[in-house]
Amino acid sequence: GRFGVQHWDFGLQSKVTAKTAFLFILPQYNVSVPTADGELVQYHYGLKDLVTILFYIFIAIILHAVVQEYALDKINRRLHLSKVKHSKFNESGQLVAFHLTSVIWCLYVVVTEGYISNPRSLWENYPHVYLPYQVKFFYLCQLAYWLHALPELYFQKVRKEEVPRQLRCIALYLLHIAGAYLLNLTRLGLILLLLQYLAEFFFHMARLVYFTDENNEKLFNVWAVVFVVTRLFTLTLYILVIGFGLPRVESQALDPERGNFFSFLFNNILFRMSVLLLVCLFQASVMWRFIHFQLRRWREYWNEQSSRKRAAAAAGTKQQTKLLKRDSGECCKGGTVEASVLWFSVLMLLGFPCVCGPVLRGKRVWLVPGTNFLSP
């Protein structure tokens, strides 16, 4: 409310609490780096980043609740989904909002910093100990989001069957983002996150469209193409930077004062090759699961199509059989009626009185006694 805003403003304006408030809100460890145009304020990482991450975890929880209440819950009421689909819809809805925001933000950062226009900057002057403000803030927010996903498993009452899968996904994201941040591979990490989030955005968007219309699977085909392309670019970038770029960089030493704690590990060719091997194996396993999933999906699709064709052919044959039986039945019925009429006519000629005769094609035919004609 208004009191909370005024109280927070007072916390920023007061000299006593301003330092503590800025510790939560803003990235820490700023340094002035001399450049040709003067001094440039940049940042490196440290333990105080944990406090900033904690603050933005609470911000992420609030934003998560806002998206859930004002967007996803309203759509869910109209769709009337089952419990399983309801849970998956909420998951995909939250991730679509996050991935779309992250793709736009990450694309803006890599373009303004010149990482796309100059690919050599991904490994030149490594380690990239000093970060621009927007790069460090982006990484802190990314770590905060994926850490906030852990308590959200409880808040959203995720099914027990889904918890291991989501925990594995969260752990992989935290491992890659924190690894790029601590190993000073932030430039490479930004490009890889952009590719990963782009593919994930199309996947979860396709799931949302599928839940609203189960016959619409076109976005899954788009996601399949984007997924393969992003995997190829990811593997190429890893090989280019770790396999060819970093070996050309001068040897680095442990320098805690500059925040260089782990970059010296890449001086060892065995460590570089081990990292590259792990990355290649991981990407290969991801592609294998993707190919296996697509083959199973296509097999199910063709089996469904063939079963529909067989069912349609069987239904057509059955319909033809019914028509033939009906036609033959009408012919036999007509012949029986004509025979009955002839038989009663003979009886009348012989002098046997009759009350009523047969049904002639749906009409009652009356045989009048003492006459030799039919009266309808």
TrEMBL record:
Q: Which GO terms describe its biological process?
A: protein insertion into ER membrane; SRP-dependent cotranslational protein targeting to membrane, translocation
Q: Which domain of life does the protein's organism represent?
A: Eukaryota
Alphabetized InterPro entries for the sequence: TLC-dom, Translocation_assoc_membrane
Give compartment(s): Membrane
How does the entry describe its membrane topology? Multi-pass membrane protein
Q: Print the keywords alphabetically.
A: Membrane, Protein transport, Translocation, Transmembrane, Transmembrane helix, Transport
Check the record and name the PROSITE patterns matching this protein: TLC (PS50922)
| Pfam families per the UniProt record, alphabetical | TRAM_LAG1_CLN8
Q: Transport: present as a keyword of the record?
A: yes
Q: Name one GO cellular component term.
A: endoplasmic reticulum membrane
| Chief location of this protein within or outside the cell | membrane
**Family assignment from sequence similarity:** Belongs to the TRAM family.
Which protein are we looking at?
Translocating chain-associated membrane protein
Which organism does this sequence originate in?
Corvus moneduloides (New Caledonian crow)
Q: What is the lineage of its organism?
A: Eukaryota, Metazoa, Chordata, Craniata, Vertebrata
